Amino acid sequence: MILSINQPAYNPWLGYFERIARSDVHVVLDHVQFEKNSFTNRNKIRAKNSSIMLTIPLATKGQFGDLAVNRLKFAEPTKWRAKHWASIKMNYSRCPCFDELKGPYEDIYSKEWTGYMPFVKALLFQHLADLGIGTQIVFSSQMQATGSKSNLILNLCNAIGSKSYLSGALGRDYLNADLFAEAGISIEYQDYDHPVYSQAWPGFYSHLGIFDLLFNHGETSLDILLNS
Questions:
Q1: CA 126/CA 104 separation, integer angstroms
Q2: Domain ranges across the chain
Q3: How far is it, in rounded angstroms, from Cα 225 to Cα 194?
Q4: Which of 31, 161, 166, 187 could be a cystine partner for 141, CB 3.0 to 4.6 Å?
């Protein structure tokens, strides 16, 4: 069984989904501390002559150091969703697959949400459905996960029963390979070769969120994402 683990992200990049697609089980690491200026609550979409960063405003003042991702609340619950969807619609409405895929996303952006995780969870499962990825998704906040960094990852692997962990490239900086070897768990690192694909505007912008690939390529997105 291959396990991958990643923190929640808003409109994640292609490599996020490539790792999920190559896994049997994926753990959404939603019980850890929120990291400011991370991709947890922001990523880019394509515009005509640039890219645009969409950022979810979060209520974090005075809470850093004691703010788990699964407890994040919006700083402003309504206007940003309308603005984000308007930007997405304006910049992707000309894409070949936008009309086909837009319905569920329009519904998600128009709905009232109790906080960050329910919103991002809804987007994640819609992205996975549109990509055709059937990997089992588990949330760490429901697992009584303990430890930090390398120990946390090892404990999650043991809890799931996985003997193979697919890590992001940055795992090389903090995973204790000796402890994993002692536990009989192999580690593979993802070194993602980002594909080049056609976009709505001339030129290619890399490392955009998944919306860009889906609205441009629809049902062929997974093949492109996997470089197959």
A1: 7
A2: 2-225
A3: 8
A4: 31
